[in-house]
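User: Fold this; tokens only.

Assistant: Input:
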Amino acid sequence: MSIILYHNPRCSKSREALTILEESGKEFKVVEYLKTPLSKSALVKIFKQLGSEANTLIRSKEPLFQELNLSISDKKSWEEWATIIENHPILMERPLVVAGNQAIIGRPPENIKKIL
């Protein structure tokens, strides 16, 4: 099973998730999604793996979210939210871990233990 951490090193929760993965002893890959943004198709796949509403992957407290006049209650499709994140990766919730065919948001970071 491949494990990927979508990571922002400036985020304390993301750094905690990195530590949890390192301590797990499992092999994993780190992707700094602000340097290497995810494609729309990759994001849609992750939405499906999360098994929840697409807006759960949105950082609604980011100033850019308000600047773009977005609302978490907007009834946007996975594809619409994916396009927004693809164009503005800072709006993606972090940390995000994908393991095999599952994905989980590491808030709190201990959540990622559920899919390891």
